[in-house]
Hints:
Layout: H1 2-24, H2 36-44, H3 48-52, E1 56-58, E2 64-73, E3 80-89, E4 92-100, E5 104-107, E6 110-113, H4 118-123
Parallel strand pairs: 1-6
Antiparallel strand pairs: 1-2, 2-3, 3-4, 5-6
Amino acid sequence: MKAKWTLVFLAASAFGMVCQQANAQVAGAQPIGISVEQEQILIEGWSVKKSLLGKSIYNDNGEKVGVLHDIIIAPDNAVSFGIVAAHQFLGVSQHDVAIPMSQLDYLNGKLVWASATRDVVKALPVFQYAKVRTVPIARKDYGHH
């Protein structure tokens, strides 16, 4: 019940800010913040920190196939990848793999990677952080793929 009222309060606050912002916009200026449509997407989205990172990933049969350790987002926001620990010992990843986030779903209170098996996941190429930028680049400098 408390979570419902918190969500209502956040939605009302955000709606109020959007309405105030709409009155202050100038033609041709880039709006700051989010639109009403984006707000709905935000409300329906997942919190990476609270509901995804560090969570176990299961296949359709309920077997654990990995743990979601990180999410990599492309500068154009078009693609994001989950970094999955396919094998870990005492909480330290021994074999990370990258998968498109679109392959993960949230079903019956669990992250699910349909049709994945531990053997298939372990057979995927190892993901190396050394190949990922450590400092973001400006969107205007991003070369589209």
